[in-house]
Amino acid sequence: MASDESPEIQVALLEEFKIFGIRLQACPDGTCSISSFVLSYSEDNEHYIESETFGDISLSGNDFQDFLLEESIAKAQFIKLRVRNAEGCVGLRMEVLAERSNCPDGFHPKLRSCYRYVKTSLPYADAQQLCNRKGGYLVEIFNEKENDYVRELSQKVDGSDIFLGISSAFSEGHWINEHGSANGFLNFNADPSERCARMLWDGKWADNACDWSLNFVCESGGGNDCPEDWLRLGGGCYKLVDEQLTFFDAVVRCQDLGGHVVDITSVYENTAVAAVVSGEKAWIAVTDLLDEGRFLSYPNQQPLSFTGWNGHEPNDWER
Question: What residue ranges are annotated as transmembrane (predicted)?
Answer without folding.
Answer: none
